[in-house]
Amino acid sequence: DADVTQTPRNRITKTGKRIMLECSQTKGHDRMYWYRQDPGLGLRLIYYSFDVKDINKGEISDGYSVSRQAQAKFSLSLESAIPNQTALYFCATSDFGRGLRANEQFFGPGTRLTVL
Amino acid sequence: AQTVTQSQPEMSVQEAETVTLSCTYDTSESDYYLFWYKQPPSRQMILVIRQEAYKQQNATENRFSVNFQKAAKSFSLKISDSQLGDAAMYFCAAGFGNEKLTFGTGTRLTIIP
Question: Would you list the DSSP string of B41-77?
Answer without folding.
Answer: TT---EEEEEEETT--SPPEETTEEEEEETTTTEEEE
